[in-house]
Design a protein that fits this description.
The chain has 72 residues and is an all-alpha fold. The protein has 3 helices and no strands. Helix 1 packs across helix 2 and helix 2 packs antiparallel against helix 3. The protein is elongated and about 50 Å long. It starts with a helix and ends in an 8-residue tail after the last helix.
């Protein structure tokens, strides 16, 4: 989802809760950090799966490319 849409949705929710709307830059930084963490977890899961031989080595390449692993 684009950062602008995330910012709009967060702003609407903040307004609904009676909170101040965060700036676009704050939302963008948090969304970027969240995306990085998700990518790292996906790579870690793929590495573990390949090491345990429950997935082929290509699964690690998919994780590095940002392609989600299918559920086992």
């Amino acid at each position: 989802m684009p950062y602008a849409e995330i910012c709009r949705r967060v702003g609407r929710e903040a307004g609904r809760l009676g909170l101040a709307q965060p700036s676009y830059e704050q939302v963008r930084r948090l969304a970027h950090r969240t995306r990085q963490q998700r990518r790292r977890r996906a790579v870690a899961r793929a590495t573990t799966a390949v090491a345990l031989r429950s997935r082929p080595p290509a699964a690690l390449l998919d994780a590095l490319a940002g392609i989600d692993l299918p559920k086992p």
